[in-house]
Each structure stands twice: as structure tokens, then as C-alpha cells.
Automatic annotation (TrEMBL), chain A:
It is found in: Cell membrane. This is Simple sugar transport system permease protein. It comes from Brevibacillus fulvus. The keyword Endoplasmic reticulum does not apply. Pfam families: BPD_transp_2 (PF02653).
UniProtKB/TrEMBL annotation, chain B:
It is found in: Cell membrane. This is Simple sugar transport system ATP-binding protein. PANTHER family: CARBOHYDRATE TRANSPORT ATP-BINDING PROTEIN MG119-RELATED, GALACTOFURANOSE TRANSPORTER ATP-BINDING PROTEIN YTFR. It is a peripheral membrane protein. Its main location: membrane. GO terms for molecular function: ATP binding; ATP hydrolysis activity. Signal peptide: none annotated.
């Protein structure tokens, strides 16, 4: 009896999250025939592509035992910067992409400096950064969204447009697969390989698993923690650029909600296949789950403001499974 | 007048017995010393008395009545209080002295939910005065000195109308004068009819202070005697035990060049240490808990900052700012706190064994998994790690096997100096002799070994040379042939 019970729990733990995703998809498919169509599936994947970028970043910070709250604000910042590079300054591809990327790398370095060097607890360090970056992006954009032909301060209209190549990043398709979806697959694949098969990936996990033991094993833990914060900021920054490309404007404060969804996706990812630790593949599944729920609820015409209730419940369930199992493991 | 009795107390931790049928008695108005080497079971016994652990078997009686102690609250209600060695674990640093003294009462009183500050300050200063302490009651506790904190704990115990107070190594952080004050306070408490259990490694103070002595060894009570009817020598021989005969497979190794030379290393608890280790030599550094052994090991490993002094490795001056520097230079450490510092409990045996040699197992940044698994397999066999497979989480292994993994991760590195800090702590007998054998093998490969231990018989069995550490200094150098456990204990407890 005891063994079958714990055996069942093992199954729940290992395949529970994936089963929930499948069940939810089945449910929505039964409720709405349009749900399980190629168009809608790619729609879901496109809608989660940006969150996935941000969530992969968060996953990196979680892997080293940290937490990056500033990712949402970085999304907002790079969205505005990349749009403004074209609309305000008529810059080409290189500047449009490199400036926001450099900005996010810089923020990552400052995060690392505060958390690793000054040793502010990372929640607090990145919380401060969240405020600062939010302030910077609204100051920079003067609180306005950035779009072609927008009125400028001096009364003229903005000289530039959002270039077609840029929009292609967010809206284009290759062989009828949306470009952002391809980019997301690529990101998940590369980071998964990096974390699972390379020395640096292993070191990141060891650093997060037991910081002191890692340090005493001769791992340069400060360097790896820095790397994690820089990558976290970088992926958030890339997410922001993709967001501008998808929407076609530089929406102000567009990243605010990304943080919560990204954190939720990463933590749901803990429970995927019983990993019990942050992992990119799990994070992707977590993001899919969130995307499927949102899409399905929209189709069912559920009120928008109720979505968070469902998201919260799903997160609580996934965390319950993860932590219940982790505790049992320690006994 | 109250009497406290513990009868036939047994306690095991995951099958390893820590206490085997211990009897202990404490009378009112008595100072009763509880002695024993590290790991003898003193702390476990006291934790059962204070409700931190629950005994597997046995009974506790107070005044000829059996009582039940399951939680710290139970113990406090029965008038059992403890002044812990780690004072900081029992105090709330950002509250005032007064609040800390009256903490228990504040917690327990349910009737009033408002704090009566004037009364709080008045009462607490009255208590402090009763003992002649002069600490401002409004002072915040984290601004107090170590000895003040201890006085606060004593005052807190007194305010609870404690009938029994346990002092766990109370003099360790105190100066001579503060120690004298503490003894006066203990005398006062004793006069008031409080029964006192006194735990200390410092034998002279035991003989000055205590009425009776109970000695424990290997989880058993060896003897209870009045202080007047025994001697320091007799106590030492009871603590160490004469019957302990362990097999140390010592192989004679020709010594080579000096590997490590340390001159006047200083930092925190380490107050100027000189030492040297030669190739193939096993140097044991012995000392009691708190002598500064772990601190010295961490200094030599770059884990803590060296304030002054020089470290030379194979004749070259080295600066070790991080453990990575040490590892790169060829110094490795198997730390004392295995689970916290030595291994990754949530990772597999394979990942643990490759953590320090991953660069050599990688090509173009990618881990060569086959090579990694092969090396882990070789190590598991060589070390005799008992594990189901390489994927097993290290947290699930026994203490001895965890320690083998903690040692094993260093074997593939090209280290010249191996340091072991209490490597047999919490390790069963079988694994112990495996670890001794392993260390012997390393010496045969002309590695230098520094072996930090508070187990004197280990040092006698394994070392080529023994350095005794006391209060941050090396106070004596002995060859195992010249030394005895008694002699080591003598120097380690401050004898000259």
C-alpha cells in the first residue's frame, strides 16, 4: 500500500505538470473546435515567445540561487529604446539592435555588482534596479509610447518609421512558422544545451546548489553569479526588442506584467519531469501552460481580470508538487 | 529541594546510537560537571533535557515524579533553562536588553497584549542588579559584548525561576575577569538552591567549581564521582578510555622536499602560526573545539583572508585570495562541515566527483560525458563508495560515503597538499578505516597532508608529526612515539 501510494506520488511529481498541460489543451479543444488548429497553436506560441525569453533569463538567475526582479523593467526599456532608435534617430539595424542589447548588459552588470560584490540580497538589489530602470525608460520616452509619425517635443513629427526588417522579427514567418516562435525554439534549444552539456552550465548549477561548497571546490562563484545576472538581463533585453517588433511600436511600461509571468513559468518549470530545480525546458513548458490558459480563457470569453486567479492557482499547484516532493526527498 | 533524574536515556540518529542507556542525576544546590570528549553524547543528552530532541527510550524524573519533555516549552515550564554556548542563537539582536531578559514571559503571557515599557525596564534592571550586572536595559542586544550577552541569558534563566540551569561551555568567550564574575554568579545561584549542570573542556575550572563530575564516552555514562575524590589525570583517562584500539594502517614513507611552509599566519582566531609539511608527510594538528584549527585550515585554503604572515608552496610565495587560487596552486581542503561545505547533496555522485576537475574533462567547453562517467566509476571503486549508481543523489548516501565523495572530488586534481578538517566526524568505523587508508595512499604518492582533528588517538595513529593548537597558536610539537593522549590533552587544554 505504502509503496503504491508513493509510487503514484512519484508519477504525479514527474509527469503531473505535463499532464496538466495536455489536459488543459484537451479541455479547451473540446470546448472550442477552433482551439486545436494550426493557426491557434502558432498564435499561442507567438504570444508566449517574449515571456519565454524573459523566463529563460529568470531561470538563469534562479539556477545560481538568485532572483532577478528587474527583468520586466528591462523589457520595457529595450522596447522603447529599439523603437526610438528607428523612429527618432532613423538608425539602421546595427544601432537599433546593439544599443538596447548594450543597455541590458550594463543593467545585468550593475545587478551583479550590487548582489555579488556589495552583497545586497539579490531580491532587494534587483528590486532597486527595477525602480531605477522603470524610471529611466519613462524618463527617456517622456511617458509616451513611441510610434511612427508621433509628435515630437518641438512640434514636428518623428522622422523615422519602424523598418520592415524589424517588424519581420516579430511578425514574419518562415515556411509558415512565425519568426518569434523559431527564435524561441532556438533560444530554448541553445540554452538547454549550454546548461546541460557544457562545463559552464554545470558550474552554474553547482554554484546555486551549494554556494559555499562550490566556492570551497575552487569554482569562481562570483564570476558565475555575475554571468547569470548578465544573461538574465540580456534575455530580458532581447525579449523587449522582440516585443517592439511584434507590436510595431515602443509601448511604455509594456514589460511590467512580464515579470510575474516569467517567474511563474520558471517555477512551474521546476516540477516538469520532476527536475526539482530550475531548467530551461521546464520553463518553456511553464510558459506554454500560461499561454494555453490565457488563450483558452480568452476564447471562452472569461473576464480578463479573472485570468490572474487561474494563473495564481496553477502556480500554487505546481509549487505545491515541487516543494512537497523536495521535502519528502530530504527526509 | 528538587532533584532531577534522567534514567536509561537512549537516542539514535538514523540507526547510529548516540546515547545508550544513560543515567544522570542533578540535585538542588549542586554544580555538576558533565564531561566527555567531542562526540561523547553530552550535547545530545542536554538537548533531550531541554526538549530540543526527544529520547527514544528512558525517563526523566523531577522530585520523584516522572515528567514528559517533548518541546522546549515543556522544559521551561519544569524550570529547566539552558545558557547556550552560541549566545546569539538564543537572543533577538534588534530588541533591547530588557525585552530579551523578559522574553519568555512576554511570549507566554496571553492576558495582556500591550507592552508596559516602564515596568519592563524596571523589572529587568532589578533582576540585573540582583546579580550585580551593570548593563543598560535599554541597550540593543546586538551592541552588547559577548559576555554581556551571556549575562543576559543567565538573567533570563533566573527570571524564569529556574530550578535547573545548564551552562554549555560558558567560559569559552570570556576573559579571566569575566570568568571570575561568572563563577560568583554560579555560586549565588547555587546558594539559592538552583541545580547547575556545567559543561566545559577546561578541567582546572571544573575542579575549582563543581561538586560532582559525570563523565561520558561513546554515548555511555562512564562514571559519576565527587570532585574531591578524583584527580585531573583520572578524569582524562576516563574521558579518553583505555580500551580504544583502532587499526591504523600506517606505512612508512620516505619524506621529500617541503611542500608547505607557513610563517606567522594571523587572522581572527589564528594568532601567529608557523608550520611546515614535507612531501609524503602527515602532519596532524590537534586541539579542542575552538582552538582555531578550522580557521587555520580555511586561511591556508584562501577561504578566509590572511591578515599577516607568509605561505610558501614548494618554496614559492603564494597569495591565496580565493579557494580557487589555492586549488590552482595545488592546495585542497576537505572541510569539516561536510553537508554545508564539502558536497552538493542535491547533485548526483557523478556530478560531485567531477566538480573540481571539470576543466580536464571538457573539450571546447563541452563536458565529455563518457569520460566523466568513467572517471567517476573509477573513483567510486577506488574509494569504496557504497552507492546504487552514479546518478544517486549524494544527500541520500550515509555520512561515511558522503565523506568519501567529498575527498574523492580532489583526487583527480594535481594537488600537492591535502588538508583534512575532522574527516571522520560522523563517520562509521568501517568508513573511518577506509579514510585512513586513503590518506595513507596519498602520503605514499608524496603528497603533503595536514590533518586537523580533535580526536587525539587519531592523530597518534595516523600522523608522522603532531602539532598541538591552543587558543590560535601552536603550543607544542610532538612525535607520535613521544606522545600519549594524556599528554596531548594536557597541552590542548592549556597546560604548560
Amino acid at each position: 500500500m505504502e509503496t503504491t501510494r508513493s509510487g503514484f506520488l512519484q508519477l504525479v511529481y514527474k509527469y503531473g505538470t505535463v499532464a496538466v498541460v495536455v489536459l488543459v489543451i484537451l479541455l479547451f479543444s473540446l470546448l472550442n473546435p477552433y482551439f486545436f488548429t494550426y493557426d491557434n497553436i502558432t498564435d499561442i506560441l507567438r504570444s508566449i515567445s517574449i515571456v519565454t525569453f524573459v523566463a529563460v533569463g529568470v531561470t538563469f538567475s534562479l539556477i545560481v540561487g538568485g532572483f532577478d526582479l528587474s527583468v520586466g523593467s528591462i523589457v520595457s526599456l529595450t522596447t522603447v529604446i529599439s523603437a526610438s532608435m528607428m523612429v527618432w534617430y532613423q538608425q539602421g539595424a546595427a544601432v537599433t539592435l546593439l544599443v538596447p542589447i548594450a543597455a541590458s548588459l550594463l543593467i545585468g552588470l550593475i545587478n551583479a555588482f550590487l548582489a555579488v560584490k556589495i552583497r545586497i540580497p539579490d531580491l532587494l538589489a534587483t528590486l532597486s534596479m527595477l525602480y531605477i530602470v522603470n524610471g529611466i525608460h519613462t524618463t527617456y520616452s517622456k511617458g509616451y509610447s513611441i510610434y511612427p509619425n508621433m509628435p515630437m517635443e518641438d512640434g514636428s513629427t518623428a522622422p523615422g518609421v519602424i523598418e520592415p526588417w524589424f517588424l519581420w522579427l516579430g511578425q514574419g514567418e518562415i515556411l509558415s512558422v512565425p519568426v518569434p516562435v523559431l527564435l524561441t525554439f532556438l533560444l530554448v534549444l541553445i540554452t538547454h544545451i549550454y546548461l546541460t552539456y557544457t562545463k559552464q552550465g554545470r558550474m552554474l548549477y553547482m554554484t546555486g546548489g551549494n554556494l559555499e561548497a562550490a566556492r570551497l571546490s575552487g569554482i569562481p562563484v562570483d564570476r558565475y553569479r555575475t554571468l547569470a545576472y548578465v544573461l538574465s538581463a540580456l534575455f530580458a533585453g532581447l525579449g523587449g526588442i522582440l516585443l517592439a517588433a511584434r507590436v510595431g511600436t515602443g509601448q511604455v511600461n509594456s514589460g511590467g506584467s512580464m515579470l510575474m509571468d516569467a517567474v511563474a513559468a520558471s517555477f512551474v518549470g521546476f516540477s516538469v519531469f520532476g527536475a526539482g530545480k530550475p531548467n530551461v525546458f521546464g520553463t518553456f513548458i511553464g510558459a506554454i501552460l500560461i499561454g494555453v490558459l490565457l488563450n483558452g480563457m480568452t476564447m471562452l470569453n472569461l473576464p480578463y481580470y479573472a485570468y490572474d486567479i487561474i494563473k495564481g492557482i496553477v502556480l500554487a499547484l505546481a509549487l505545491a508538487v515541487t516543494y512537497y516532493q523536495l521535502r519528502a526527498r530530504k527526509k | 529541594m528538587s532533584t532531577l533524574q534522567m534514567k536509561g536515556i537512549c537516542k539514535s540518529f538514523s540507526g547510529v546510537p548516540a546515547l545508550q542507556g544513560v543515567n544522570f542525576e542533578l540535585k538542588a544546590g549542586e554544580v555538576h560537571a558533565l564531561l566527555g570528549a567531542n562526540g561523547a553524547g553530552k550535547s545530545t543528552l542536554m538537548k533531550i533535557l531541554t526538549g530540543a530532541y526527544t529520547a527514544d527510550e528512558g525517563e526523566i524524573w523531577i522530585d520523584e515524579q516522572p515528567v514528559v519533555i517533548r518541546t522546549p516549552q515543556d522544559a521551561k515550564k519544569l524550570g529547566i533553562q539552558c545558557v547556550y554556548q552560541e549566545v546569539d542563537t538564543a537572543l533577538i539582536p534588534y530588541l533591547s536588553v530588557a525585552e530579551n531578559i523578559l522574553l519568555d514571559r512576554q511570549v507566554q503571557t496571553r492576558a495582556k497584549s500591550l507592552v508596559n515599557w516602564p515596568r519592563l525596564y524596571a523589572e529587568s534592571s532589578e533582576i540585573l542588579q540582583r546579580f550585580g550586572f551593570s548593563i543598560p536595559v535599554k541597550k540593543q542586544v546586538d551592541e552588547c559584548t559577548l559576555s554581556e550577552k551571556q549575562l543576559i541569558l543567565i538573567a533570563r534563566a533566573a527570571v524564569q525561576n529556574a530550578k535547573f540551569i545548564i551552562f554549555d561551555e560558558p567560559t569559552a568567550p570570556l576573559s579571566t575577569r569575566e570568568t571570575e564574575r561568572l563563577f560568583q554568579i554560579i555560586a549565588q545561584l547555587k546558594q539559592a538552591g538552583v541545580g547547575i549542570i556545567y559543561i566545559s573542556h577546561r578541567l582546572p575550572e571544573i575542579f575549582a567549581l563543581c561538586d560532582r563530575i559525570t563523565i561520558m564516552r561513546d554515548g555511555q555514562k562512564i562514571v559519576t564521582t565527587t570532585t574531591a575524590s578524583t584527580t585531573i589525570d583520572e578524569v582524562i583517562s576516563h574521558m579518553l578510555g583505555k580500551t580504544f584500539a583502532e587499526e591504523f594502517p600506517k606505512v612508512a614513507v620516505p619524506l621529500g622536499e617541503p611542500v608547505l611552509e607557513v610563517t606567522q599566519a594571523k587572522s581572527g582566531k589564528v594568532r601567529g602560526v608557523d608550520l611546515s609539511v614535507r612531501q609524503g608527510e602527515i602532519v596532524a594538528i590537534v586541539g579542542l573545539v575552538g582552538a582555531g584549527k578550522t580557521e587555520l585550515a580555511r586561511l591556508l585554503f584562501g577561504a578566509d583572508r590572511l591578515e599577516a604572515g607568509e605561505i610558501r608552496l614548494a618554496g614559492q610565495n603564494v597569495r591565496l585570495r580565493t579557494p580557487k587560487d589555492a586549488v590552482d596552486a595545488g592546495i585542497v581542503l576537505v572541510p569539516e562541515e561536510r553537508r554545508k561545505e564539502g558536497i552538493f547533496v542535491e547533485e548526483s555522485v557523478k556530478n560531485n566527483l567531477s566538480v573540481s576537475a571539470l576543466a580536464a574533462l571538457s573539450a571546447l567547453g563541452f563536458i565529455r560525458r563518457g569520460l566523466e562517467a568513467a572517471q567517476a566509476q573509477t573513483l567510486v571503486q577506488k574509494l569504496g563508495v557504497k552507492t546504487a549508481n552514479l546518478g544517486q543523489l549524494v544527500g541520500h548516501l550515509s555520512g561515511g560515503n558522503q565523506q568519501k565523495v567529498a575527498i574523492g572530488k580532489w583526487l583527480p586534481t594535481q594537488a600537492r597538499l591535502f588538508m583534512f578538517d575532522e574527516p571522520t566526524k560522523g563517520v562509521d568505523i568501517g568508513a573511518k578505516s577506509d579514510i585512513y587508508r586513503l590518506i595513507g595512499n596519498l602520503a605514499q604518492q608524496q603528497k603533503g597532508i595536514l590533518y586537523f582533528t580533535c580526536e587525539f588517538q587519531e592523530a597518534l595513529g595516523i600522523a608522522d608529526r603532531i602539532l598541538v593548537m591552543y587558543e590560535g597558536r601552536i603550543v607544542k610539537e610532538l612525535l607520535p612515539e613521544q606522545a600519549t593522549q594524556e599528554l596531548l590533552m594536557f597541552y590542548a587544554s592549556g597546560g604548560e
